[in-house]
Design brief:
- By secondary structure, the chain is an alpha+beta fold.
- Helix content is 33%, strand content 23%.
- The strands form 2 sheets. It has a 5-stranded antiparallel beta sheet with strand order 1-2-9-4-7, with no helix packed on it.
- Helix 2 (121-132) packs antiparallel against helix 3 (136-149), helix 3 (136-149) runs antiparallel to helix 4 (154-166) and helix 4 runs antiparallel to helix 5 (172-184).
- The radius of gyration is 18 Å and the shape is globular.
- The protein starts with 20 loop residues before the first strand and ends with a helix.
- The mean pLDDT is 92.
Length: 212
Amino acid sequence: MNDKPNWHVAHLDDIERRGRDIPVREHLGIHAFGINAYTPGEDGTLISEHDEAGSGQEELYIVLDGKATFEVDGEAFDAPAGTFVSVRPESRRKATGDGTVLAVGATPGEAYQGVDWGEAWPFHRDSMTAYGEQRYADALEAVRAGLEHMPDHAGLHFNYACFATLAGDTGDDTFAHLRRSVELRPQFREDARRDDDFAAVRDDPRFEEALR
């Protein structure tokens, strides 16, 4: 990558992998929108099944090389290199294949605020793996370990509150972590109100108190 102060050039192979993820946004220092690339997992997964109803984020997927098969709202279709797939927030989507997919996303009408994982990445990776397998207590332990190293990481605080809630821990400490996440990254205030991970505590007065 060049070292010009106002512009950067990098090849995909220049960016250090985080497992199968390629952190394009962090590598280039982009803050206006989310952009990252993904390579296949051992089972061929390129994009794990999810929707963005909670974040309201629109996403655009671009197949850079190889080929992929997307499934959006139950409809599957082939996506060779050069294909663009635009998905609305409420739609369920996933992709498998042997290529590289670039994902670009942001929420309409809202300023984008990215979370730089940096040194927190190994803890985030382990927690999200456990979260995807619904091992919420294990996900919480991974986040707790991360916070021992990076006590002011907004994303770890937010995920702590999410995973603790899902694990059935609704004590004051859970709301303290949610409050701290909002102090560090105000966008988490609205994210929390839309996130189904907090469904069990949304009517708890401590929830809104933490978001003030």
